[in-house]
Amino acid sequence: MRNEERRERLKAALLDAAERTIAESGLSALKARDLAKDVGCALGAIYTVFPDLDALILAVNLRTLALFDRAITAVRIEPEPEGAASPAERDAAVETLVRLAVAYLHFAAGNPARWRALFQHRVTHALPDWYLVEQVRLFRYIEAPLRVLRPDLAEGERALLARSLFSATHGLVSLGLDEKLMVLSEPVLRGQIEIVVGALGRGLAGE
Protein backbone atom coordinates (compact mmCIF):
# COMPACT_ATOMS: atom_id res chain seq x y z
CA MET A 1 0.00 0.00 0.00
CA ARG A 2 1.36 3.41 -0.92
CA ASN A 3 2.24 5.88 1.84
CA GLU A 4 -0.42 8.35 0.72
CA GLU A 5 -3.10 5.67 0.78
CA ARG A 6 -2.05 4.57 4.26
CA ARG A 7 -2.11 8.18 5.36
CA GLU A 8 -5.66 8.70 4.05
CA ARG A 9 -6.85 5.50 5.71
CA LEU A 10 -5.34 6.57 9.01
CA LYS A 11 -6.93 10.01 8.68
CA ALA A 12 -10.37 8.48 8.04
CA ALA A 13 -9.96 6.04 10.95
CA LEU A 14 -8.96 8.83 13.32
CA LEU A 15 -11.87 10.98 12.20
CA ASP A 16 -14.34 8.12 12.64
CA ALA A 17 -12.96 7.25 16.08
CA ALA A 18 -12.93 10.87 17.25
CA GLU A 19 -16.44 11.43 15.95
CA ARG A 20 -17.68 8.31 17.73
CA THR A 21 -16.03 9.35 21.01
CA ILE A 22 -17.48 12.86 20.89
CA ALA A 23 -20.97 11.62 19.94
CA GLU A 24 -21.03 9.02 22.71
CA SER A 25 -19.09 10.68 25.55
CA GLY A 26 -18.58 14.35 24.70
CA LEU A 27 -15.61 16.49 23.77
CA SER A 28 -13.89 16.13 27.14
CA ALA A 29 -13.55 12.38 26.57
CA LEU A 30 -11.37 12.84 23.50
CA LYS A 31 -7.75 12.02 24.42
CA ALA A 32 -4.91 11.55 21.95
CA ARG A 33 -3.55 8.44 23.69
CA ASP A 34 -6.96 6.75 23.79
CA LEU A 35 -7.56 7.70 20.18
CA ALA A 36 -4.28 6.13 19.07
CA LYS A 37 -5.12 2.94 20.96
CA ASP A 38 -8.58 2.87 19.43
CA VAL A 39 -7.32 2.94 15.83
CA GLY A 40 -4.19 0.88 16.51
CA CYS A 41 -1.52 3.44 15.69
CA ALA A 42 1.37 5.08 17.51
CA LEU A 43 0.59 8.27 19.39
CA GLY A 44 2.88 10.28 17.15
CA ALA A 45 1.17 8.95 14.02
CA ILE A 46 -1.84 11.16 14.77
CA TYR A 47 0.28 14.21 14.06
CA THR A 48 1.37 12.95 10.67
CA VAL A 49 -2.17 13.49 9.38
CA PHE A 50 -3.40 16.25 11.71
CA PRO A 51 -1.14 19.06 12.93
CA ASP A 52 -2.81 18.97 16.37
CA LEU A 53 -5.96 17.84 18.13
CA ASP A 54 -7.60 21.19 17.33
CA ALA A 55 -7.49 20.32 13.64
CA LEU A 56 -8.97 16.89 14.28
CA ILE A 57 -11.79 18.31 16.40
CA LEU A 58 -12.57 20.93 13.76
CA ALA A 59 -12.77 18.17 11.15
CA VAL A 60 -15.24 16.30 13.36
CA ASN A 61 -17.21 19.49 13.94
CA LEU A 62 -17.33 20.01 10.18
CA ARG A 63 -19.06 16.63 9.92
CA THR A 64 -21.52 17.81 12.57
CA LEU A 65 -22.23 20.96 10.57
CA ALA A 66 -22.85 18.81 7.49
CA LEU A 67 -25.26 16.67 9.52
CA PHE A 68 -27.05 19.82 10.67
CA ASP A 69 -27.15 21.06 7.08
CA ARG A 70 -29.00 17.90 6.04
CA ALA A 71 -31.45 18.45 8.90
CA ILE A 72 -32.33 22.03 7.97
CA THR A 73 -32.54 21.41 4.23
CA ALA A 74 -35.69 19.48 5.10
CA VAL A 75 -37.23 22.77 6.26
CA ARG A 76 -39.46 24.25 3.59
CA ILE A 77 -38.15 27.69 2.69
CA GLU A 78 -40.53 29.85 0.70
CA PRO A 79 -39.14 31.42 -2.50
CA GLU A 80 -38.30 35.09 -2.26
CA PRO A 81 -40.78 37.45 -3.97
CA GLU A 82 -39.63 39.22 -7.10
CA GLY A 83 -40.97 42.59 -5.98
CA ALA A 84 -42.15 44.05 -2.68
CA ALA A 85 -43.30 41.31 -0.34
CA SER A 86 -47.00 40.97 0.33
CA PRO A 87 -48.34 40.46 3.87
CA ALA A 88 -48.76 36.74 3.11
CA GLU A 89 -45.15 36.50 1.92
CA ARG A 90 -43.92 38.25 5.06
CA ASP A 91 -45.96 35.83 7.18
CA ALA A 92 -44.39 32.94 5.29
CA ALA A 93 -40.90 34.35 5.96
CA VAL A 94 -41.66 34.58 9.68
CA GLU A 95 -42.85 30.97 9.65
CA THR A 96 -39.62 29.97 7.92
CA LEU A 97 -37.60 31.57 10.72
CA VAL A 98 -39.68 29.68 13.27
CA ARG A 99 -39.24 26.36 11.44
CA LEU A 100 -35.48 26.89 11.22
CA ALA A 101 -35.32 27.59 14.95
CA VAL A 102 -37.35 24.48 15.74
CA ALA A 103 -35.11 22.41 13.45
CA TYR A 104 -32.13 23.71 15.42
CA LEU A 105 -33.78 22.61 18.66
CA HIS A 106 -34.50 19.14 17.29
CA PHE A 107 -30.91 18.77 16.12
CA ALA A 108 -29.47 19.87 19.47
CA ALA A 109 -31.82 17.61 21.43
CA GLY A 110 -31.12 14.65 19.15
CA ASN A 111 -27.34 15.10 19.02
CA PRO A 112 -26.46 16.73 22.36
CA ALA A 113 -22.78 15.78 22.62
CA ARG A 114 -22.04 16.63 18.97
CA TRP A 115 -23.91 19.91 19.30
CA ARG A 116 -22.13 20.94 22.51
CA ALA A 117 -18.74 20.15 20.95
CA LEU A 118 -19.37 22.87 18.36
CA PHE A 119 -19.33 25.48 21.12
CA GLN A 120 -17.14 23.91 23.80
CA HIS A 121 -14.11 23.65 21.57
CA ARG A 122 -11.81 26.65 21.87
CA VAL A 123 -9.06 26.78 19.28
CA THR A 124 -5.71 28.36 20.11
CA HIS A 125 -5.40 29.94 16.67
CA ALA A 126 -7.63 31.51 14.01
CA LEU A 127 -10.29 29.27 12.52
CA PRO A 128 -9.29 27.96 9.08
CA ASP A 129 -11.00 29.39 6.01
CA TRP A 130 -12.65 26.07 5.09
CA TYR A 131 -14.44 26.01 8.44
CA LEU A 132 -15.51 29.65 8.29
CA VAL A 133 -16.91 29.15 4.78
CA GLU A 134 -19.18 26.39 6.05
CA GLN A 135 -20.38 28.52 8.96
CA VAL A 136 -21.19 31.43 6.64
CA ARG A 137 -23.01 29.12 4.24
CA LEU A 138 -25.30 27.84 7.00
CA PHE A 139 -26.23 31.38 8.02
CA ARG A 140 -27.58 31.87 4.48
CA TYR A 141 -30.63 29.85 5.52
CA ILE A 142 -31.52 32.57 8.02
CA GLU A 143 -30.62 35.41 5.69
CA ALA A 144 -33.10 34.27 3.02
CA PRO A 145 -36.30 35.02 5.02
CA LEU A 146 -34.65 38.13 6.46
CA ARG A 147 -34.26 39.42 2.92
CA VAL A 148 -38.05 39.26 2.63
CA LEU A 149 -38.69 40.88 6.00
CA ARG A 150 -36.00 43.57 5.75
CA PRO A 151 -35.18 44.23 2.09
CA ASP A 152 -33.85 47.64 3.12
CA LEU A 153 -30.81 46.17 4.88
CA ALA A 154 -27.41 45.97 3.23
CA GLU A 155 -25.94 42.50 2.87
CA GLY A 156 -23.52 42.98 5.77
CA GLU A 157 -26.28 44.26 8.05
CA ARG A 158 -28.49 41.32 7.12
CA ALA A 159 -25.68 38.86 7.85
CA LEU A 160 -25.16 40.45 11.26
CA LEU A 161 -28.88 40.28 12.01
CA ALA A 162 -28.92 36.59 11.03
CA ARG A 163 -26.20 35.92 13.58
CA SER A 164 -28.12 37.85 16.24
CA LEU A 165 -31.25 35.80 15.59
CA PHE A 166 -29.23 32.63 15.76
CA SER A 167 -27.70 33.77 19.06
CA ALA A 168 -31.16 34.37 20.51
CA THR A 169 -32.32 30.91 19.43
CA HIS A 170 -29.11 29.28 20.63
CA GLY A 171 -29.52 30.92 24.04
CA LEU A 172 -33.04 29.54 24.40
CA VAL A 173 -31.93 26.07 23.35
CA SER A 174 -28.81 26.08 25.52
CA LEU A 175 -30.62 27.14 28.67
CA GLY A 176 -33.62 24.95 27.99
CA LEU A 177 -31.51 21.81 27.54
CA ASP A 178 -29.05 22.53 30.35
CA GLU A 179 -29.70 19.98 33.07
CA LYS A 180 -27.93 22.13 35.69
CA LEU A 181 -30.01 25.22 35.06
CA MET A 182 -33.56 25.03 33.75
CA VAL A 183 -34.06 21.87 31.76
CA LEU A 184 -37.36 21.95 29.89
CA SER A 185 -39.11 19.20 28.01
CA GLU A 186 -38.66 19.46 24.26
CA PRO A 187 -42.35 20.26 23.56
CA VAL A 188 -42.33 23.08 26.14
CA LEU A 189 -39.06 24.46 24.80
CA ARG A 190 -40.39 24.27 21.26
CA GLY A 191 -43.42 26.29 22.29
CA GLN A 192 -41.25 28.99 23.84
CA ILE A 193 -39.03 29.15 20.76
CA GLU A 194 -42.06 29.49 18.50
CA ILE A 195 -43.35 32.38 20.63
CA VAL A 196 -40.03 34.24 20.85
CA VAL A 197 -38.80 33.74 17.28
CA GLY A 198 -42.27 34.41 15.91
CA ALA A 199 -42.44 37.68 17.85
CA LEU A 200 -38.98 38.71 16.61
CA GLY A 201 -39.93 37.88 13.04
CA ARG A 202 -43.19 39.83 13.19
CA GLY A 203 -41.32 42.74 14.69
CA LEU A 204 -38.89 42.71 11.79
CA ALA A 205 -41.84 42.57 9.41
CA GLY A 206 -43.10 45.82 10.96
CA GLU A 207 -46.21 44.32 12.48
Can you describe this structure?
Helix 1 packs across helix 2 (32-39), helix 1 (3-25) packs across helix 6 and helix 4 (53-72) runs parallel beside helix 7. The longest helix is centred in the middle third of the chain and has 24 residues, at 87-110. The chain is mainly α and 207 residues long. It has helices at 3-25, 32-39, 46-49, 53-72, 87-110, 112-120, 129-149, 155-177, 186-204. It has nine helices and no strands.
How is the topology of this model organized?
Layout: H1 3-25, H2 32-39, H3 46-49, H4 53-72, H5 87-110, H6 112-120, H7 129-149, H8 155-177, H9 186-204
Helix pairs in contact: 1-2, 1-4, 1-6, 4-7, 5-6, 5-7, 5-8, 5-9, 7-8, 8-9
Overview features:
elongated; 73% helix; 207 residues
Task: Return Rg in Å.
Answer: 20 Å
Number of distinct beta strands: 0
Strand composition percent: under 5%
Rounded average pLDDT: 91
Run of helices and strands: HHHHHHHHH
Runs in which pLDDT lies below 50 for 5 or more consecutive residues are none
In this structure, how is the largest beta sheet organized?
none
Straight-line N-to-C gap? 65 Å
Structural class: mainly alpha
Report the helical percentage. Answer: over 70%
* Quaternary organization: single chain
**Approximate shape:** elongated
Number of helices: 9
